[in-house]
Design a protein that fits this description.
By secondary structure, this protein is an alpha+beta fold. The chain has 4 helices and 4 strands; from the N terminus they run αββαββαα. It has a two-stranded antiparallel ribbon. A two-stranded antiparallel ribbon has the order 3-4.
Length: 125
C-alpha cells in the first residue's frame, strides 16, 4: 500500500508537469505559433479584450503580434478574439485532462492499475 501511495504521488507530480506544458507551452492558431507563458497569456487576454471592445463599438482594430518564432503577424479584431478563444480552450482542455487523470489515479485499486494509467496522451496539442 505504501508503494501504491508513492506511485500515486509520482503520477500526480508528472500529471501536473504535463498540464503545465500543455497550458503554458506554444500553441498554434491558423498556422501561427503563439507563446502561452504567463506574460504572453496576459498580453493575449488584454489584446483580446481590446479587440472585443473595438468590435462591439464598431471601431477598427489591428495589432501586429510577435509570434513564438519571432516573426510577426497582423491580426484583426476577430482574429485576435479567435486567438484568445483558442488559448482559453487549450487551458480548459489541459485542466480537464489533468482532472480526468487525477480521478483515475485516485480510483486505481493497486500498483497494476496505477501502472496502466497512460498520462502521456490526450493533452491539447
Amino acid at each position: 500500500e505504501r508503494q501504491a501511495e508513492q506511485l500515486r504521488a509520482q503520477l500526480w507530480t508528472a500529471i501536473k508537469a504535463r498540464r503545465d506544458v500543455a497550458e503554458y507551452g506554444v500553441f498554434m492558431w491558423d498556422g501561427s505559433s503563439f507563446n502561452a507563458d504567463r506574460e504572453s497569456r496576459n498580453r493575449i487576454m488584454g489584446a483580446t479584450q481590446l479587440a472585443s471592445m473595438a468590435a462591439a463599438s464598431g471601431q477598427p482594430y489591428s495589432i501586429i503580434w510577435t509570434l513564438a518564432d519571432n516573426t510577426t503577424r497582423t491580426l484583426s479584431a476577430m482574429e485576435m478574439m479567435s486567438v484568445g478563444a483558442t488559448l482559453g480552450a487549450r487551458v480548459g482542455a489541459a485542466h480537464a485532462r489533468a482532472a480526468e487523470l487525477r480521478a483515475q489515479v485516485t480510483a486505481a485499486p493497486g500498483m497494476d492499475a496505477l501502472r496502466a494509467i497512460d498520462i502521456t496522451t490526450g493533452w491539447p496539442a
